[in-house]
Design goal:
The chain is 42% helix and 16% strand. With 539 residues, the chain is of the alpha+beta class. Bound molecules: zinc ion.
């Protein structure tokens, strides 16, 4: 694998001399501005608001399905298990609107009944051995929980996360096996260094059923749904889901009380996805409602009212920040929430709204690629937070800081631009309309820079490939015509522009951008997997 030089590498969003780009930026004429204002107004009218508690579809995206109505009629599903009217339900006045079961591949069955008790929707979910399916009647016998509406939503997002976690842990153990194979660590009598021996020990601990992850999926009446991911002796992992009854002793653990009889058991992530699909079918989030579902990215920004919006609006936490200090704090807190790491934000010298838009772009990047080692976001230039050398009129600069930590980077925005919102916006919109850059606004600039940060994290693999492509005949003009003129500068800028294109335009991005984004994703996954593989070895 190519290793970057330790010397800091610098890259800019735009040519250092923005005053003389190949295509001269033209101020937007007055008529053009009002046309833009009209478009903006109609866009705003078209904004559909979404509740922050809105459910996700099985792909993890926010969905438009009306949970309330669909829950009441069971999403059109029938009471398949014929539970309505059974004692334990009837006694509490609960009508069973829909019921279904899911048989896990290696363990027990999830019995599910969606009920309506005097207008209150609930899900009774019991985990029983396949032999006991017919005996389940939704009563409190230690293996059933009752979830209210928010509990159901919580369970759905927890299961989507569990699906990811299972895959991640499976990848981690696979990476460890590969690493050990590379030094023949499994060969009998192999001479191993202490570090290699630690890796082998770590492997056997996992393979012996070592717990890799555990927690609670959802809490409700009568108990909680707990999960556990542990290694197995076939170089894979198993995930278990079981009920911890409220009456359980304080020292109860799933690991200790686990049997194939009392837990759903999965040896691959697909099974977890199927369980979620079945739950969705029951609660009206599945195929029945899918045709009416509009898809939104899980990292979709929020409007000022805190609801999910269709535009590049600013999330509530940032919109609330009234000055630069509050914005720095809010952005750092959001980054911490997303990545679990500390990222320093310093928007000194920025117009607050421009700062919010820059922060939103960076956070969207982090939400999509949370392991990217971005350590610092700040400002430079006139009135900025720091002096990072001469970068003239560049909108922003991303510096690789490999000298401190391999793959790490910092993003710096030019306070000279960021302090003059009208001029900045006019230049961005004007140059974008001439095909110069993918981004038409400050958030787009931030996403472009984040593209460089991802590239640095992957040690320049994506830009290396993009650069090769550019040097092929016609590569440069293809970049210019299908991505942007600025993308034709070099492999690094092509990568950053392609990244911004996909982040801003999704499926509407150019084919070249989507291809390069896919490449970045592959390299990112590889780096993240390696980082994880290393992380499980005691140091
Ligand atoms: Zn750039």
């Amino acid at each position: 694998m190519k290793r970057m030089t330790v010397k800091d590498r610098v890259t800019t969003a735009w040519p250092v001399e923005i005053t003389s780009p190949p295509i001269a930026p033209t101020p937007i004429p007055k008529a053009g501005r009002s046309a833009i204002a009209e478009i903006v107004a109609s866009e705003l009218e078209a904004i559909r608001k979404f509740d922050p508690h809105q459910p996700r579809d099985p792909a993890g995206k926010w969905s438009l399905v009306n949970a309330v109505e669909d829950l009441l009629d069971g999403g059109g599903k029938a009471d398949k298990l014929n539970l309505d009217g059974l004692g334990p339900f009837a006694l509490t006045g609960a009508r069973v609107r829909a019921s279904d079961r899911y048989r896990s591949p290696n363990g027990s069955t999830a019995m599910m009944a969606l009920t309506d008790t005097h207008g209150k929707r609930e899900l009774r979910l019991g985990i029983v051995s396949p032999d006991d399916e017919r005996k389940w009647s939704g009563s409190n016998l230690g293996s059933t929980v009752v979830l209210d509406d928010p509990g159901i939503t919580h369970l759905r997002s927890s299961l989507a996360k569990l699906h990811e976690d299972h895959q991640e842990e499976a990848d981690a153990i696979e990476a460890l096996v590969e690493d050990i194979d590379a030094f023949n660590g499994f060969e009998p009598g192999a001479q191993l260094s202490p570090r290699q021996q630690a890796m082998v020990d770590q492997y056997w601990q996992m393979a012996d059923g070592g717990v890799m992850k555990q927690g609670t999926l959802a809490s409700g009446q009568w108990g909680e749904l707990r999960y556990l991911i542990r290694g197995n002796d076939t170089d894979g992992v198993d995930t278990f889901v079981a009920v911890r009854p409220t009456s359980a002793p304080a020292n109860w653990t799933l690991q200790d009380s686990l049997t194939r009889e009392n837990a759903l058991a999965f040896d691959d992530a697909d099974g977890i996805g199927k369980f979620l699909d079945r739950l969705d079918g029951l609660t009206g989030h599945g195929t029945a409602g899918r045709s009416a579902t509009r898809r939104f990215d899980p990292d979709q920004p929020r409007g000022p009212d805190g609801k999910w919006s269709l535009t590049g609006a600013i999330r509530h936490a940032l919109a609330e920040a009234g000055d630069v200090d509050a914005l720095n704090q809010a952005a750092s807190a959001e980054a911490k929430r997303i990545t679990g790491r500390d990222t320093h934000f310093d928007f000194t010298g920025c117009d607050v709204q421009i700062g919010r838009e820059h922060a939103e772009g960076v956070l969207r990047g982090l939400e999509r690629f949370p392991k990217t080692k971005l350590t610092r976001v700040s400002t430079f230039g006139r009135g900025g937070a720091e002096d990072i050398g001469q970068h003239g009129d560049a909108y922003a600069v991303t510096t690789a800081t490999h000298g401190r930590e391999l793959g790490s980077s910092e993003i710096h925005f030019n306070a000279g631009w960021a302090s003059q919102p009208d001029t900045y916006r006019a230049y961005l919109a004007g140059t974008h309309s001439q095909g110069w850059g993918v981004s038409a606004d400050p958030q787009g600039v931030a996403l472009h820079e984040f593209g460089h940060a991802v590239d640095f994290f992957t040690e320049g693999q994506a830009s290396g490939a993009a650069g090769l492509r550019m040097r092929n005949s016609g590569g440069s003009s293809a970049a210019a015509s299908s991505v942007s003129h600025y993308a034709a500068t070099n492999g690094g800028e092509l990568t950053a522009e392609a990244f911004a294109d996909v982040m801003l335009n999704g499926d509407g991005a150019s084919e070249l951008s989507k291809e390069l984004f896919g490449l970045m994703q592959t390299h990112y996954d590889e780096m993240a997997r390696r980082a994880r593989g290393r992380a499980v070895v005691p140091s």
